[in-house]
Amino acid sequence: MGLWNTLGPGNKLIMQLSKNALGLIEAKEGLEKPAEKLLALPEKVLQFGTGVLLRALPDYFIDKANKAGIFNGRVVVVKSTDSDSSAFDRQDGLYTVCVRGVENGVTVEENIINASVSRVLGAKTEWNKILECAHNPEMRIVLSNTTEVGIQLVDDDIHAAPPVSFPGKLLAFLLERYKAFQGSTESGMVIVPTELITDNGSKLESIVLELAHRNQLDFKFIEWLETANTFCNSLVDRIVPGKPNNTDGQKIQEALGYEDELMTMSEVFRLWAIEGDEKVKQVLSFHQADPGMVIVPDITLFKELKLRLLNGTHTFNCGTAYLSGFNITREAVTHPVYGAFTKRLMHEEIAPAIPFAIDEKVKADFANSVFERFCNPFIDHQWLSITVQVTSKMKMRNLPLLQQHFKNSSVVPVHMAAGFAAFLLYMKITKQEGNKYFGTRGNELYEIKDDSAAYFYELWQNNDPASVAKLAMQNKEIWEADLTQFPGFLHAVQEKLAAYLSNGVLETIEQIEIKKEIA
């Protein structure tokens, strides 16, 4: 393919992003270009996954460090699926991260050409090349984001080319590494999964060790696996919608003067918290380039802040906001009444109930930053996408908040009760088509993507709203607890549910805030 492609109105010819095009791309305000010498840096990282989160967070930090002369290493990306990677080949691994948002009240619009990826290898067709990377003495880091289902134990033959599972592939790579360097301690890897599961590093390590035993590998290798390698728990937090829509993408590309098939939109906020010691800090030296990457002995503080104030707020809010008529987060939180409701939920109810000792100012500052992220004018975060599996999210994220709240106080948290009541109303199924379930907002149907949908369908079919609330809250199979035991909480939920059905959701939220203002 040539250097020039056709794009935009009038068949205007512009360049496709590539190594050869870099020198021709005009330097302009808001565009950060890499020096060509960065494309010759040695490969130091093996990364399982080509997704936008990896490109806009770990690879973002690596690229930033390279440009500052700190890390000086590039990433070999392993593609495990049949997805097309030819765009990486056409663009020599280059892609643009378009950072959009508000930070400390200041609007940020940055376009960063990332040069951290050296090549993409397909596990199914280029497994030998992936194993060759194990012989590279400079390659000491493994990163991954294979989605939550990627870190699962399955029977796997690690001598296959390639093994089926991600842990199997990783184990095969480490075995090749062990053989290449005769089991030297110095040849061990630092392995940092970014999958969104609790204790992701510890879980991955246990699966890899189990697979080593099942494959009857030499005990000396297993000893090296346990002692020379470091599996780190980590937490990632950045909203990365991915490729912009056609209209926005075309405008950006015309302004920049080149076409980018891998263009990736991202919010400003970034956090990558990793559990590690001084050795991990030394190997992951790119952490020095950005304060959004932190390496500490315990990341519980970061997990709790994100899980409760970001994810917990989303989960309490998603039913309430969507049934109030809002489709995206920004619409809800910039509404004068609903925005006030969200702030009180976060600052007055969730923050005090976080079941971990955190300084009050730290909680308040984090809550403020989360609210600012919710208001991002450049990112359309759909409430319906947040409602996926909302029942399990409510249990994992918010049940501990309710439990802690009632340990601290006997006063019913009115905003949490409103959020829980809206969750029940959101799960009111009005239509079933095969295995699909739908609720109704006004005159439109919305699909409920939740493993508990069938349960709530039967519940709403056979009970009045007050009974739905009571029976759902007593269901220990869902909650592993009886939520009606929280003093006054059932009555508050029933009251809010009745008000929603009689007066409307947003109207009920407005009444809650009026009473708060008077109080």
Report what the structure shows.
The chain is an alpha/beta fold and 519 residues long. The chain has helices at residues 52-56, 58-67, 86-90, 127-132, 166-180, 200-214, 219-227, 246-256, 278-283, 300-323, 329-333, 336-353, 360-374, 383-386, 390-408, 414-426, 453-462, 465-474, 476-479, 489-503, 505-518, and strands at residues 4-6, 13-16, 31-32, 43-48, 74-79, 95-103, 106-114, 117-122, 141-144, 190-193, 230-231, 234-237, 258-259, 264-266, 271-275, 293-296, 431-433, 436-441, 444-447. A 6-stranded parallel sheet has the order 8-5-4-9-10-11. A hairpin with a 2-residue loop joins strand 17 (431-433) and strand 18 (436-441). Helix 10 packs across helix 16, helix 12 (336-353) crosses helix 15 (390-408) and helix 16 packs across helix 20. The protein is globular, with a radius of gyration of 25 Å. The protein starts with a strand and ends with a helix. 44% of the residues are buried. The mean pLDDT is 94.
In short, what is this structure?
This protein has about 525 residues and is of the alpha/beta class.
Number of helices: 21
- Based on CA atoms alone, the radius of gyration comes out at 25 Å
Q: Number of DSSP strands?
A: 19
Task: Classify the beta-strand content into a percent band.
Answer: 15-25%
Class by SSE composition = alpha/beta
Low-confidence stretches: none
Which bin fits the share of residues in helices?
Answer: 40-55%
* Largest sheet report: 6 strands, parallel
Globally, the shape reads globular
- Average pLDDT taken over every residue: 94
| Termini Cα gap | 68 Å
Spatially, the strands of the biggest sheet line up as 8-5-4-9-10-11
